[in-house]
Design a protein that fits this description.
single chain; mainly beta; Gamma-B Crystallin, domain 1; 2 helices; binds calcium ion
Amino acid sequence: MEGVSVRRVTNLLALSGVAIALLAALPGVAAAAPAAGGSVRLAPMPAATHVPGHTAAPAASTPGVQPNSAFGCPDGYSCYYDGHNGTGMIWVPLSCGFYNLFEFSPPLNDQISSIVNLGGGAIQPYNWDGVGSWVPVGPAVPVGFIADYYGGFDNVIDAVSINC
Ligand SMILES: [Ca+2]
């Protein structure tokens, strides 16, 4: 699969139309990304999994956080997966901010294949160019969307910037 695809979490029935609209609104994003031949599919998530009104502010601690949303991702958080379509969750950050996944123990860089964003702000993934720059991997993932990364965009994310 090539290209960029975005889907909202809220309305599965309107998925294709939303994806097309977002694709049209994001020309050149894929081309600007570092990994040639890669693609990102951003898609809305199913209605049953979306909780309207969840605004940012993840809880201060994980206890009590319930995975009541899509793909096992707790409402109010963003979740990161080794597999596509929200499978194989490897990380749920507890707050917004910039995270260098290489600095984790164990490192989580070059593993992410999908992101579910149920947090309070858009998420921009980055790839380290190996020289000195963070290069965006596809478009920012809006709140309420799942992003799937394919080809040259798969398993290349080295950092994420999570807006509050
Ligand atoms: Ca992976």
